[in-house]
## 1
Amino acid sequence: MSQFNIEFTFDGEKIDAITGQSVAAALLAANQRTLRKTRFNNNDRGVFCGIGVCFDCLVVIDGITNQRACLIEAKPGMKVQTQVGSDA
């Protein structure tokens, strides 16, 4: 039996997660390192601090921008997308 019991998508790709796991942790486990692109130079950004302080893990979740992937628990059916820049 698989330990994974949650499925969501990241940029259209299926990602498996465990109950209680953050979106960021599930993405790292799936070898997804780039979660957003910087506004001006389109540089890759991903999980840095893992505790919601640095804002490098911003993603779009179900159409809502500026979601910190390290603080959001993975839920079945979530549609997570790479964010370009930030709306802040």
## 2
Amino acid sequence: MPQFDRRTMMLMTGFGLLASAVPLPKVHAQPAPAGQTGTFLFADEFDGPAGSAPDPSKWSIAKARETIKNPVFWDRPENMGQYRDSREHVFLDGNSNLVIRATRNEDGKYVSGKVQGRWWGPINTTWEARIKLNCLTNGCWPAWWLMNDHPEVGGEVDLMEWYGNQDWPSGSTVHALLDGTSYATQPYPVDGAWHTWRMSWTDAGMYFWQDYVPGKEPYFEVPAHSIEHWPFNYPGYSMFPVLNLAVAGSGGGDPAGGDYPAEMLVDWVRVFAG
């Protein structure tokens, strides 16, 4: 993974670079037909025995936290929570949910988890996950996002992100670059109930929904090429899915007053054409 400083850049510059108001053609992508899982390009229902790891053919589990370039105080390695590939922090609950758990150890250190998809998806796809956040507390930083980590291409799409630092608004963001200098963002409420978070990625741009139903308008639209250095329409460009619950970092802030253990539950992840 590359070194990241885009959240540091957000802290310095704020959430001011909203997408252009240019209207996009309306899209209402339909889900794959019920019961026909073969129509999904990628899917995981997280079925499996309680306490087991997610399917290793679909997901890799992070063993450490990324290094942050130009770190602020909470980005420093000694202050950030760490990721571990352990069944205490990343596991299936036996009820068709992936659980990513953050804990506070007796020594005051924090540990949590992150999974990264092994599958890369192209343009003209719809990505969706059903998520419950039992982690809306100081220090936590849960996210459902997509990424291309090639250092010369970049690109990141945050379908849902919540910040325990109490300073940044939750919502969705499209990053053209990995350094946080070219992006469009839309604040949107995030709570602890079950919700689906969907993004349709088309030649015309990207469209975002919470709890999509046919005919519902997206709460966020980002026209193609409306952000400088837009990579998402490059021939052959693709991204992979990521789910994580970070502790501390610039987005999580100080976890000392938070309630731990804290958990992010994921019922399913689905990607289909259209």
## 3
Amino acid sequence: MTLNKAVDFYPAKIAVVDGDRSFTYTETGKRTAALASFFQGRAIQPGDRISILEVNSHAFLETYYAAAGIGAILNPLNYRLAAKEIAFILSDAGSRWLVAGSRFADLVSGILQEDTSLEGIVWIGDSPSLSYGVPYYDYENAISTHAGPFKPAVVREDDVAHLYYTSGTTGRPKGVMLTHKNVCLHALGTIAELKLVDSDVWGHIAPMFHLADAWATFAVTWVGGRHVMVDQFKAETVMAAIEKKRITLSNLIPTMLNLMIKHPKVGQFDFSSLRVILSGGAPIAPEVVRNITETFRCDYIQTYGMTETSPYLTFSILKQHLQDLSPEDQLKFKSKTGRPFMGIDLKVMDETGNPVSADERQVGEIWVRGDTITPGYWNLPVETEQAFADGWLRTGDLAVVDTEGYINIVDRKKDMIVTGGENVYSTEVENVLYMHPKVLEAAVFGVPDETWGEAVTAAVVLKANESATEKEIIQFCKQHQAAYKTPKTVVFLEELPKTGSGKIYKKALRDPHLGK
């Protein structure tokens, strides 16, 4: 276990800061062992599933490691889902126990109205005084009454460690299996790529139920770094945490970065501790990258990955010789999807199964393989077989390649719009919309149209205290791109729907139009 190594090497070092509480590596190791002992006392066996429904916290990190220690499979749950959706996941995974934050008592009550396999609940925080029909325990009491060693499981590298359910943007949620080998090799890859060291302080700001943040649980622990927990995103709270806790790096989804950059108090905070910000989940315009680096005065890395890939597939880290380019040319590479992550084989294939030309024009689908790729989907052998071709995972993402081997995603295969016989990639239209001075967020998608087949449609969120008309936005787009790419309709929203990983949920935008 990486935690055991950290305990040996850094026993007195602060491992976790969670609000006004902090824990050394020795304390974290003891608490984790006690939690593992508790579960072994409930007859949890290697391969059994334990689910967790919690915000970013020390308990989340402890549960990750406790499950690994006894060979159980941890199933992190997206607390933004409805009770029926979570109940489906619990049932599909066959979870025996649930570790839940007491703030989610009402959600858990709804979950237990459905058919689940749960045998017990461990409550983090004050245990709700409600009857749930299954035994429940207090988290801190479980730890204090089980102090002492547990019997570590004999775990093989190909045993499943985690079960993450996809957001369901393409249909029914599927359980993505990640093995101990997947998790460990991905952690080693990020340590090497990001040059992680024991003085690093990781800000757990994106939700830990998603791999966009969860990977750092292992990589940062491996090098003896510090974990700072932020339980929910508020721009001012996060900026204050960066300053006060001296956070050195974190992964922030584009929406978070936008809200921080545009916050009226952004200039009042000290970001000098930051050395790198990672972001992904959506393509990014060079102008946005410029704003990020100018605001936070640190390096920026655009990332691309999937739940199925642990998650990283590419980083926009500059090759050595590219660091001699002018700042403007460097910015172009920094805003690309990036070059392959360590240990990943990546190719972009055309419809005939041949690699596309490295000309930044020919579009193809990204195929990947490597030791950090999932072995498949939980109890879904047909879907697993369909996802792979000759050992390569077909991602469903469309991209172009440049002569340096950097890829740039142009769209999801399913999101490409065909209008009047022309292919329109939503990202190129979105990049134009982000150039508009009043636009905070934008999403472009196609809706059925009798004349055009599909009509380009934009959903836009304006910056605070700004106003704009549909005509104004459409006219702006016409000035910067071909007419057939210009949205025929612009819808103004207060916020865009998003998945648990922070990706814009285009299906929710598109569905209301399908019946029209």
## 4
Amino acid sequence: MSQRFQNFREFYPFYLSEHSNRTSRRLHFVGSCGVLALLALAIAQGRPWLLLAALVCGYGFAWVGHFFFEKNRPATFKHPLYSFAGDWVMFKDILTGKIRF
């Protein structure tokens, strides 16, 4: 049975536990950087197809991290909105040094 969370504050520690492998976190970070770059290009160049490329980039890097390094299923499958938010909070936490890169 899927774990239930009342709010994101309850979910985030679970999210971090699913990202304990350093290589996986690095892949998530690289994927998120790619998403931001592709999003900027899509807007700057007026190429909406780059939004699809951004999705593939973000999820592609993250899922490689989960399947090959964490050896778990991405939380996205059961908690899509919290997981999306978790990706960006973890990205910020890595940038600010709160989480080790």
